[in-house]
Amino acid sequence: MPETFEHEVAQAWQGGLVIAVCGIDGAGKTTLIETLARTLEASGEAVHVTRQPTSFYRSLEPVRTYHDEGAGNIPAECLALLSAADRSLHLAREVLPALLAGKTVISDRFVAAAAAIFETRGLSRSWIDEVNRFCPPPHGQILLDISGEEAVERIRQRGGYIRLEERSASTLEAIRQNYLRQRQENCLVLDAQATPESIAEQARRYVISLSRQPVPA
Question: How far apart are the first and last CA of the chain?
Answer without folding.
Answer: 50
